[in-house]
Design a protein that fits this description.
about 325 residues; FBPase_C_dom; eight-stranded mixed beta sheet; EC 3.1.3.11; five-stranded mixed beta sheet; binds 2,5-anhydro-1,6-di-O-phosphono-D-mannitol; hydrolase; Fructose-1,6-bisphosphatase class 1; fructose 1,6-bisphosphate 1-phosphatase activity; single chain; binds magnesium ion
């Protein structure tokens, strides 16, 4: 490749598709639509401070939290883009109580279901701090041509065909996996294209960053408290104390740790016995990426992706990142 050659996401998707004999291109088509929606949301995120799009939209989502205007925008745009591509029979979003079935001929014939957290880290919108979109794609289990049903969504994470996130940060990135490693694409705003910038991302097996909301310390399980103490102790051999970094946007916290090595923790607490994060919209897609990059993701006891979901908005304790760090905290948790 010469110095000026770039691989755009579109080209990358097309090249991958051409390696699959008999491919009709439906899946590639869907990924193109994800990228289009991402660019539209990115445009709004970038100008959020200039127009009246910050702040509450006046609705509350199914978790009882205030929805921001940008949440609504991102949700609507992703739903429209995914509906428009005609490859998906139904979509489930963190912002909607039930899944949305695309009840037309195209929708009924769609082979895939799409799950998303359209704008994660929403408490950071107002303050110009990184936020993200998280998505996950499964093959439907109900017959093509019929109405989608809940069982299409309640599949374990191991059944994911693809997962990824868009990070609206100091630059905008789309990072995704289809089960053959993880690749990252950075948006070049001057040409409006995501360009391959992080090929085959591998996360370090050990890291020096721990990311957790320590404000909740008193409510953490004993094993988590002990692990935090371990991170803070001085030990030259293991380069401790580790660094504490917490943005409060899962995508941004995970992305940093993915590249640098580290652990992200959102544990169960006394008042939230299942933690905060959602299995289907947040943890499964991030777990798929973590594992594909050589990392690990667990609920403290078992692999996140092997959990059988029982409801759309199910929450789960979440421990993810460098595999040796996650393995260590799992040991600490079982000690108590
Ligand atoms: P959201 O989907 O309502 O934005 O909530 C999810 C976010 C994650 O991005 C982040 O890791 C976590 O909530 C932060 O929660 P807390 O403020 O409790 O630390
Ligand atoms: Mg979220």
């Amino acid at each position: 490749m010469t110095k000026f050659e770039v691989t755009t996401l579109s080209e990358y998707i097309l090249n991958k598709q051409m390696t699959i004999p008999q491919s009709r291109g439906g899946f590639s088509h869907l990924l193109h639509h994800v990228s289009t929606a991402a660019r539209m949301v990115n445009r709004e995120v970038n100008k959020a401070g200039l127009v009246d799009i910050l702040g509450e939209a006046g609705n509350t989502n199914v978790q009882g939290e205030d929805q921001k205007k940008l949440d609504v925008f991102a949700n609507d745009h992703f739903i429209d883009a995914i509906r428009g591509c005609g490859e998906v029979c139904a979509i489930a979003s963190e912002e909607n109580e039930s899944f949305i079935f695309f009840d037309d001929e195209k929708g009924r014939n769609g082979k895939y279901v799409f799950l998303m957290d359209p704008l994660d880290g929403s408490s950071n919108i107002d303050v110009n701090v990184s936020i993200g979109t998280i998505f996950s794609i499964y093959r439907r289990v109900t017959p093509v041509g019929e109405k989608a049903s809940m069982e299409d969504f309640l599949q374990p994470g191991t059944a994911q065909l693809a997962a990824g996130y868009i990070l609206y940060g100091s630059s905008t990135m789309l990072v995704y996996t289809t089960g053959n490693g993880v690749n990252g694409f950075t948006l070049d705003p001057s040409i409006g294209e995501f360009c391959l910038s992080h090929r085959h991302i591998q996360t370090p097996e050990d890291g020096r960053i721990y990311s957790i909301n320590e404000g909740n310390y008193k409510k953490f399980p004993k094993g988590v408290k002990k692990y935090i103490k371990y991170c803070q102790e001085r030990d030259d051999a293991t380069q401790r104390p580790y660094t504490s970094r917490y943005i409060g946007s899962l995508v941004a916290d995970f992305h940093r740790n993915l590249l640098k090595g580290g652990i992200f923790i959102y544990p169960e607490t006394e008042t939230a016995p299942l933690g905060k994060l959602r299995l289907l919209y947040e943890c499964n897609p991030i777990a798929f990426l973590a594992e594909q990059a050589g990392g690990r993701a667990s609920n403290g006891e078992k692999r996140i992706m092997e959990i059988q979901p029982t409801s759309l908005h199910q929450r789960v304790p979440f421990y993810t990142g460098s595999k040796n760090m996650v393995a260590m905290i799992e040991d600490y948790l079982t000690d108590f």
